[in-house]
Amino acid sequence: MASFCTANPGLHIERDEHGMLFIDMSPTYLLTSSNNSELNGELIIWNRRIKAGKVIDSNGGFFLPDRSMRAPDVAWIKRDRWDALSTGVKKSIPYLVPDFVLELASDTDNLNQLHDKMGIWLKNGVRLGWLVSPRDGKTFIYKPDAPVVTKLFTETLTGDDVLIGFETILADILEL
C-alpha cells in the first residue's frame, strides 16, 4: 500500500480496515479547497504560537491499528509524539494515530459516511475529532467514550484538552 501511494502521488488514496481502496482523482471544488485552507491556517497559526505539535494537511496519510490507511483533511500530532518519530518515519506514511483529526464535508460527500469515518478515527485512538459541515453550518465534535456534540458555526469551537488554548468561530473564517 505504501509503495502504491508513493508511486501515485497525484491520487488521494484511503484504505478501509477490510483492504478496500478508495481513490479520489478529482480535485475539490474551489470553495471547499478555500475552506480547507482556512481551517489548516487557523490550526497552523495557533500551533506556531504555542509550538505544541505538528499540523498535517490532507496529503498526509496514516496507517491505523485496524489496518486501514486514512488521510483526514487536517490532522495534528502532539509535539512529544512528533519528536519521538525518526526522520524515516516522518518521510513515510506512518503507523500512527493522530491526536486530532478534522474532516471537512464537501458538497459531494455523504454526511452519514463521514460520521462513520469519524467513528473509525475514534476507535483507532484519535483523542478529538471534528466533522465540519458547511451545508449545515455545524461542527460535530467527537471524543472517546462521549456522545457527539454539535456546535453551530456561530458558536466558539475549542480544542478542549487536546488542542489546548485553541479557539475559533467558524462563521468568521469559512465561506458557505
Structural summary, described in words:
With 176 residues, the chain is of the alpha+beta class. Helices cover 28% and strands 30% of the residues. It contains five helices and twelve strands. The chain has helices at 2-7, 30-50, 79-83, 87-90, 111-123; strands at residues 12-15, 21-24, 53-57, 62-63, 69-70, 74-78, 100-104, 128-133, 138-142, 149-152, 156-159, 163-169. A six-stranded mixed β-sheet has the order 3-6-7-8-9-10, with helices on both faces. A two-stranded antiparallel ribbon has the order 1-2. Strands 4-5 form a two-stranded antiparallel sheet. 30% of the residues are buried. The mean pLDDT is 90.
Task: Write out key terms for the chains shown.
176 residues, alpha+beta, two-stranded antiparallel sheet, 28% helix
E-strand count: 12
- Strand content is 25-35%
Structural class: alpha+beta
- Rounded to the nearest angstrom, the radius of gyration is 15 Å
The helix tally amounts to 5
Shape: globular
Q: Uncertain regions: pLDDT < 50 for 5+ in a row?
A: none
Helix amount, in percent? 25-40%
Major sheet strand order: 3-6-7-8-9-10
Distance between the termini: 36 Å
Could you describe the largest sheet, including whether it forms a barrel?
Answer: 6 strands, mixed
- Mean model confidence by pLDDT: 90
> Could you give the order of the helices and strands?
HEEHEEEEHHEHEEEEE
Q: Could you write a compact summary of the structure shown?
A:
The chain has 176 residues and is α+β, with helices and mostly antiparallel strands.
